[in-house]
């Protein structure tokens, strides 16, 4: 049974809300400085840090909190902010529903590549001028969120899109490189969706290529060009991330996890995990537990 806390709604008290923004210092005071447990959301999170000290864990990668950082946490990722003192900045959360309501397509978010589900999720560290621009958008969003402005959520959506584009430009990844519905972008979207639906039972590139009605070579070239990794590497990263989550946050045995993730033999799972993490499943679990 999974012990991990999962937040499914952007606002636990008002289920109709699909966007939220809070000051990090207010969150700290509300929690009386108590560290939150590791958790995951069914929505997107953006942390804009003005000043902070501590650690931010995202899917078992740990990053030092510091001034002028921006973190992007995708739906499903496990994360935990561990503050050693009060942080200052903004925490924004928004769901797919908000994107729809704001006429922001999900493919736009995916092509930005700011929200990396399965791999490293280091903070964006803009220069002072860039951070000032991004912080300005966040401040406008916060002001609108707490106002009675007409069509305020449409305005928030516009500022959010500008904020994400500004962040994206810092990464030198242009979201307008190609048409929104180009064949390559459609392959990326369909591939990610198909992996999420099937990764627990299907591990081969050829399966996903067949599902998308293209050749494995075509799939690999497209994924490599757009995402910087092969289709196989993406699939393996998805399985590895879920394996880590199951090892750490559930009471399942290695054998049960192996079968849960589509391995016919527990030994094959152990070999896979060690190849992709350089540590055995049992050692990983023990190492994480003592941190």
Order of helices and strands: EEHEEEEEEEHHHHHHHHHHH
End-to-end distance: 22 Å
Major sheet size, sense and barrel closure: 5 strands, mixed
Radius of gyration: 20 Å
* Mean pLDDT value: 87
Number of separate strands = 9
**Low-confidence region ranges:** 173-179
Kindly state the percentage of residues in helix. 40-55%
Strand content: 15-25%
Class by helix and strand content? alpha+beta
Structural shape: globular
Topology:
Blueprint (H helix, E strand, L loop, with lengths): L4 E3 L11 E5 H7 L8 E3 L2 E8 L2 E5 L2 E5 L3 E5 L4 E6 L4 E7 L1 H6 L4 H7 L15 H18 L6 H19 L12 H16 L6 H7 L4 H12 L3 H19 L4 H7 L5 H12 L3 H9 L2
Parallel strand pairs: 1-3
Antiparallel strand pairs: 2-9, 3-8, 4-7, 4-9, 5-6, 5-8
Description:
The protein is of the alpha+beta class and 291 residues long. Helices cover 48% and strands 16% of the residues. It has a 5-stranded mixed β-sheet with strand order 1-3-8-5-6, with no helix packed on it. The chain has a 4-stranded antiparallel β-sheet with strand order 2-9-4-7.
Brief summary:
This protein is an alpha+beta fold. The protein contains twelve helices and nine strands.
């Amino acid at each position: 049974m999974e012990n991990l806390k999962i937040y499914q709604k952007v606002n636990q008290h008002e289920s109709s809300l699909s966007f939220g923004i809070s000051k990090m210092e207010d969150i700290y005071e509300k929690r009386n400085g108590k560290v939150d447990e590791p958790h995951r959301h069914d929505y997107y999170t953006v942390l804009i840090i003005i000043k902070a000290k501590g650690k931010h864990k995202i899917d078992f990668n740990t990053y030092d909190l510091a001034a002028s950082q921006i973190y992007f946490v995708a739906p499903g990722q496990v994360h935990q902010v561990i503050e050693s003192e009060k942080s200052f900045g903004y925490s924004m959360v928004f769901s797919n529903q908000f994107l729809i309501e704001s006429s922001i397509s999900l493919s736009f978010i995916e092509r930005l590549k700011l929200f990396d589900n399965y791999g490293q999720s280091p903070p964006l560290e803009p220069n002072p001028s860039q951070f000032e621009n991004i912080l300005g958008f966040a401040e406008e969003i916060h002001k609108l969120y707490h106002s009675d402005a007409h069509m305020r959520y449409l305005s928030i959506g516009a500022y959010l899109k500008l904020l994400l584009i500004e962040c994206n430009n810092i990464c030198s990844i242009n979201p307008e490189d190609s048409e929104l519905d180009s064949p390559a972008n459609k392959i990326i979207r369909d591939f990610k969706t198909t992996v999420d639906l099937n990764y627990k039972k299907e591990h081969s590139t050829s399966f996903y290529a067949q599902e998308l009605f293209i050749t494995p070579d075509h799939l690999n070239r497209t994924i490599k060009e757009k995402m910087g990794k092969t289709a196989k590497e993406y699939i393996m990263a998805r399985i590895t991330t879920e394996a880590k989550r199951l090892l750490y946050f559930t009471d399942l045995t290695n054998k049960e996890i192996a079968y849960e993730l589509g391995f016919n033999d527990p030994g094959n799972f152990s070999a896979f995990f060690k190849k992709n993490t350089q540590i055995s499943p049992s050692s990983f679990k023990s190492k994480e537990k003592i941190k």
